[in-house]
Amino acid sequence: MTPKHSSALRPCPLCGSDKKERYIDGRFGLENITPINDPSSIEFAWLKAHWGDEGKAAPRFPYAKCTGCEMIYAEVFPNDATLGALYAGLADNMEMIDESARSKTQLGYAHPLKSGVPSGGRYLEIGPDIGMFVHELKSIATLNQSNFTGYSFVEPNTAAHQALNDLPVNKPISISSDLSVDNVEGPFSMAILIHVLDHLAKPQEMLEGIAQKMLPDGKIMIVTHNQHSLIARLMGKFWPAYHAQHPQLYNKKTLKTALVSAGFGNVKIKSTRNHINLGGLLQMIGEVVGLRNLRFGILGKIQIAIPLGNILAIAQREH
Questions:
Q1: What are the structural domain ranges in the chain?
Q2: How crowded is residue 230: how many other Cβ atoms within 10 Å of its Cβ?
Q3: What is the pLDDT of residue 267?
Q4: CA-to-CA distance for 104 and 74, rounded, in angstroms?
Q5: Are 194 and 223 within 8 A, CB to CB?
Q6: CA–CA distance from 33 to each of 2, 36, 43, 87, 247 (Å)?
Q7: SS3 category, 174
Q8: Residue 224: what are its φ and ψ, rounded to 5°?
Q9: Could you give the CA distance from residue 11 to residue 14 in angstroms, rounded to a whole number?
Q10: Alpha-carbon dihedral 28, 29, 33, 36, rounded to 10 degrees
Q11: What pLDDT, on a 0 to 100 scale, did the predictor assign at position 3?
Q12: Pick from 190, 151, 142: which is nearest to 169 by CA?
């Protein structure tokens, strides 16, 4: 049975306005649903069971477009406590991509940070999974471990905590499951959010919280889907990023507005390329059209670098 439950709609997560227009309808009965923030409820159980579904099976809340700042956002969405429970133990949705290709993509994200960051602060990463990005930073001399007094991770997936604790960083490591930096030790000299900001129920609160604990000239790096990308425009409402896991979707304009509003400056945003094995790419396309468990043999192992509709932003904490 598809659960339904009506409730108040969200205001714009960027500017707070409630003036909006419908952008994309929901899917699978999620037009008027607010999942009950109670892990014993039928609504929660249903959403938990379908939270990781992709392609035609993916659940989707209705999206609105703010008529003020033009942010695209889901009109209803669970709170942070429920989000943590939904993501806990979630399978890796990039497991179809070879680890070497994923590593190359992460290294590409790291290169713009090679100018370095202020010393005397901690490294913060929200949603690090098993810490792949930390491994790639080790290859950049200006971002060696001596720059950081410790490593702070906010990761709701408790299954990843042991891997994070085992990272060879030779500095104190702290891990929080709460989607907040309120109780995370600072100050920070660097903050990393790779495909995280568009998953948070209150993204501006997260950015403002990071800014308050960041050293002057400290850097923040964000990678998100680009709602204005060519692939998004071509696929329309079938773009995979229109998914229940994404309460908002950014473009270059709205991402810059979010950073500046939170207290960051010197914002630079660019499109990115993903390294991906051909088999993984074709399997992702298959998921969109409802085909699963495809096999491509040796051709599937060929690696290519292509734009997949993502953007990377780097900004500095203003004095």
A1: 20-87, 99-317
A2: 11
A3: 97
A4: 32
A5: yes
A6: 10, 9, 9, 19, 13
A7: strand
A8: -140, 170
A9: 9
A10: -70
A11: 41
A12: 151
